Amino acid sequence: MYWTLELASKLEDAPWPATKDELVDFALRSGAPMEVVENLQEIEDEGEVFESIEDIWPDYPSKEDFLFNEDEY
Question: CA 3 to CA 9: how far, in whole Å?
Fold first, then answer.
């Protein structure tokens, strides 16, 4: 399983919190690349609910990781 920023961004609009099955369904319905679906299917399903993309990919960058100041524009 591998995640890139582009692949993970396809899940930003997912209905969080969500189970693995809900995320796979969302990815299929939203037309996400098959790599996203494959990555989600590789997650061990213990019935847990994921609160955000960070639960799946802990290295997902947040807004604080960018040096963009929205107040300046």
Answer: 10
